[in-house]
Write a structure and sequence with these properties.
With 99 residues, the chain is of the alpha+beta class. The protein has three helices and four strands. Strand 1, helix 2 and strand 2 form a beta-alpha-beta unit.
């Protein structure tokens, strides 16, 4: 898996602003992180680069652990987190030549 992109505070702020207009692409339910959820996150990040995630964890500590696990598993960076919603960023892959 690729390592998470390193962002400075200005880049994170700009991405948070873009993410405000997005609707959550993923919903992490009370069951937590699963293989189908990781595949959906991979697909969304590859397609869009910036996604919003809604996490329905029973408490704040669990929500933080699940969010960090999701970011680590997908090689993305957490741009912002407000309540149950967070935004993840991973640069889109370069298009294949001739595609």
């Amino acid at each position: 898996m690729n390592s998470a992109p390193l962002l400075n505070s200005a880049e994170r702020k700009a991405l948070r602003g873009k993410a405000m207009t997005l609707k959550p692409a993923l919903l992490v339910g009370k069951a937590g992180i699963s293989e189908p959820l990781l595949k959906a996150a991979e697909t969304a990040l590859t397609k869009d680069g910036l996604i919003k995630v809604r996490i329905e964890a029973p408490d704040r500590a669990t929500r933080k652990v699940w969010l960090e696990a999701l970011a680590t598993a997908t090689g993305s960076t957490i741009c912002g987190e407000v309540g149950h919603t967070a935004s993840l960023y991973r640069p889109k892959p370069d298009p294949a030549p001739g595609a």
